[in-house]
Amino acid sequence: MTRKSIARRILIAASLLDCAMRLFAMTEAPPDYIASLWLAQDGLPSETIQAFAQTPDHYLWIGTLRGLVRFDGYRFVHFDSDNISALKTDSIFCLKVTRDGALWIGTEGGGLIRYQNGAFRVFSANDGLTNNVVRAVYEDNAGNIWVGTDSGLFRFFGERFKRVDGSGMIPAMSVHAITGDSRGGIWVGGTALVYMDREGVRNYRLVRDISSLRVKSILETRDGSIWVGAVSGLYRLQTMGGFKHVDEVPGTVRVLRETSDGALWAGTIGNGLYVNRTGRFVRMNLMIGLSSNTVLNLYEDQEMNIWVGSQGGMLRLTKSSVSIYPLPGASDSDFGNVYQDRDGTLWICSNHLFHMKEGVLKPHTFPGLAGIKVRLLMRDEGGALWVGTDGKGVFHQSGNMWVNYLAKDGLGSNFPRAMIQTRDGSVWIGTDGGVSHWTPRGFKACDIGNGFQSVSVMALLEDHAGDIWMGTFQGLKHLQGDRFVGDVVTEAVGHDTVLALHEDRQGVLWIGTNRGLYRYKSGKFFLFTTNNGLVNNLIYSILENGDGDLWLGGPNGASLQSWKQLEEAANHRLRSVTPIYFASSLDAGSAEIFGSMQPAGAISRQGDVWFPSNKGLVHIAANRMERRGAFPLAIDRVVVDGREVSSHSQPIVLSPRSSRVEISYAPILLRSQAAMLFRTKLEGFDQEWRETSARRTAEFDNLAPGHYVFRVEAWEAGQSESKSVASLEFVQKAYFYRRPWFLFFCGGLLAALAWGAYRFRIQRIKMRFRLVLEERSRLAREMHDTVLQGCTNVSALLEAASSMEAADPVSADEMVDLARTQVRTTIGEARQAIWDLRRSELPGEDIVRSLQRIADQMNSNAEVPILCEVTGKQFPIEPSALQELLMITREALHNSVMHGQPREIVLRADFSDESLVIQVCDDGHGFDCAGMGQDSGPHFGIQGMKERARRIGAIFSVSSRIGVGTQVGIEISRKRASSGAALRDV
């Protein structure tokens, strides 16, 4: 190949490229809509989207070939024949929401389904709908439901359908479209085109051969025009009554829609999407990134998003203040730069250089710099341009000539990143190899060492004092005069990557880094991060608008931040800032904004903001910035220990075994949710709100029993005054042993036990005291009944012996002998009593013989006849009870002998099946029983007998009459006498 042919080919290629660039420059500005596409990998069950509808709760319902889908703008919920029994087939052809909020679902083969109040109901042949392929559902002004099928037009009466075609003026037809007009009439299209009103029915012809007529859609626009989409194309009703074909839209017109801005949209089969805004149709396929030329449905929701259903997924078109000016080759570039010239025009550096003037973007090549890739530009005070290149150093315009400065001329590197001109007219150039200082006399050496490991300089700034600030990959450098200084500013930034520098009109220094935004003023530092409300910690650019507020550029978008909020937050008067966020990652076709070279953005004189990106020039129109209102916020899922529970009825009651609660919440917002912010709080658990921007699920483990209210707030970044709220109330039940009643019961029980223990202790003390008293009383009784009585007898015998000694010595001796015997007996009884104190059981003895022995002894001592009478069948008596009974009997006999002066004493023992009764009766002079209960001083007898009777549970009684005699009785039950129960109770 000759040099001439090579040169010719190069010339042709350059010409073609120039033509292409000029053609690009002549294309109209980007549309007002930002497109977002959803495919199967994004959660759609099928990429063939046939229908849309929006219910009053703001959910978007989507009909696909593989089921019904509910969409909240973020998450898809799928309904199909596998999880909904009413869906006999998964192909959803049409959707309609009626005034009562019901969603009508037309299927291809599964009949008509109504979804209302959470329940699905199928209408089929049993309900009068004789064809199961439903193509259209319409509600007229009177609230009547019309249904079009492959075989017939039906009207809903009550809960049944009635077919209305095939009779009279309406021919039997397959129906694909039904709509009403402003005059109250109804248009029906399919294999025929029919208009019905009060005056009757009229048939229309779109084509000569009526058998080839296939109407797909019908629409009346706000100007009263009737449009019909058919297999044969688009038609418009003329004033003369006929339809005229619209040649601008070729092919089958499947769907027609008029949006709220008055635009008419037409979706076609195989030819894409057309829109008519100005009286002519324009094809929108490439402008919006349509993924398929077969458009099956169009829908505008309440937020004025336009949804396009095609065979290539679901497309959302959203009006936005953010738009993209595509730049050829931008996606292949690793840098981008926007510079605003003195005349207000913009220079855009990417793989190619572009110049925007009066909104028109054109490619530009400087004479003498053809083929050189431009990285950045700057115009100095003299009007000369400085052009930084990608590997070719810096070009300085001098008249009509360009002076090229390279590394060999003193430039730090041939890859410049930032340029500024200072007040003295010199130029500072930051490069990948350090910073260079140019003066009219040439480059001046500038050593950026002093510990800096990286010499790549990405940002330059001259402050109000004339100091130079340099941002590098590993920190900030401060030049005062001719020397670099280390101060509180450079130390605070440390080794952070500094990407942007700006000094505002108040003299505040702002430093954009990879860790956030630094603010320095009057010796005080403050670091703003996402924890303080920033959208992103990576700050590529800092721009100040006419109001003094700051635009912060980041990788996924830009935010407008109030200077006043930043000031208040830095002075700790505000906890966090609330920027207005403009996301480029979703709203601008996944554009990523470029940084690391300055200037990385510009603000036009009109206030519009421009940023470079990998998809082109990102434009934020300040005059179209809108304040959006609140939106529905739903708690759509509650999972307890892996099991989903209904949240419709509140409060939700959780069992004591519940250990984990997961609450999912979602804003029902069909526009982009990229700037969505949330904060949650569980009242009864959290002290403060928890802020989050990513997670849409709150999880709680091992909650204490109690009443809780989960609250969530959602808002779009920068619009915190328009918060949406939702709440969920639930109760975590406690195990019975942790419930209040049980705790109160346990507290009461403990109190009762404590009181019982106290009472028991007091009773024990009293019992011990009583036992001591009883023991003392028993000892007193024993002494009284044994020693004292014996001594009394001895004393009486000795007195008698003394008085008889002179008169009757023999009798006196006998009395002395009896006294000796009585002394021995008394000593024996005393020993026996002492022995009884040391043993727990007394030996058994026959009570009858014992009573007889006591009677005989008393008789011999007192010479008073004592008769002993025993009746009934004797039964055994427990030794302790026997001892007490004998002591009582002995005391009673002794008292009768000593005090009653009886002529005769009778001792009776009466045994019965229930008890033993012992009576001692005398015929002595008796006594007055009225004073028997009073203290008798030394006369201990009756009191002792009572205590002994009480000790064994016996009934003691005394009756006496003066001059008649005395009767002492003891009655003890057989059970107590045999078991000694009374003694054991004590």
UniProtKB/TrEMBL annotation:
<dbReference type="InterPro" id="IPR013783">
    <property type="entry name" value="Ig-like_fold"/>
</dbReference>
<keyword id="KW-0808">Transferase</keyword>
<dbReference type="GO" id="GO:0046983">
    <property type="term" value="F:protein dimerization activity"/>
</dbReference>
<dbReference type="InterPro" id="IPR011123">
    <property type="entry name" value="Y_Y_Y"/>
</dbReference>
<protein>
    <submittedName>
        <fullName>Ligand-binding sensor domain-containing protein/signal transduction histidine kinase</fullName>
    </submittedName>
</protein>
<feature type="domain" description="Two component regulator three Y">
    <location>
        <begin position="676"/>
        <end position="730"/>
    </location>
</feature>
<dbReference type="GO" id="GO:0016020">
    <property type="term" value="C:membrane"/>
</dbReference>
<dbReference type="Pfam" id="PF07730">
    <property type="entry name" value="HisKA_3"/>
</dbReference>
<dbReference type="InterPro" id="IPR011110">
    <property type="entry name" value="Reg_prop"/>
</dbReference>
<dbReference type="InterPro" id="IPR050482">
    <property type="entry name" value="Sensor_HK_TwoCompSys"/>
</dbReference>
<dbReference type="InterPro" id="IPR036890">
    <property type="entry name" value="HATPase_C_sf"/>
</dbReference>
<keyword id="KW-0902">Two-component regulatory system</keyword>
<dbReference type="GO" id="GO:0000155">
    <property type="term" value="F:phosphorelay sensor kinase activity"/>
</dbReference>
<keyword id="KW-1133">Transmembrane helix</keyword>
<keyword id="KW-0472">Membrane</keyword>
<feature type="signal peptide">
    <location>
        <begin position="1"/>
        <end position="25"/>
    </location>
</feature>
<dbReference type="Pfam" id="PF07494">
    <property type="entry name" value="Reg_prop"/>
</dbReference>
<dbReference type="InterPro" id="IPR015943">
    <property type="entry name" value="WD40/YVTN_repeat-like_dom_sf"/>
</dbReference>
<keyword id="KW-0418">Kinase</keyword>
<dbReference type="InterPro" id="IPR011712">
    <property type="entry name" value="Sig_transdc_His_kin_sub3_dim/P"/>
</dbReference>
<feature type="domain" description="Signal transduction histidine kinase subgroup 3 dimerisation and phosphoacceptor">
    <location>
        <begin position="775"/>
        <end position="841"/>
    </location>
</feature>
<feature type="transmembrane region" description="Helical">
    <location>
        <begin position="741"/>
        <end position="760"/>
    </location>
</feature>
<keyword id="KW-0812">Transmembrane</keyword>
<keyword id="KW-0732">Signal</keyword>
<dbReference type="Pfam" id="PF07495">
    <property type="entry name" value="Y_Y_Y"/>
</dbReference>
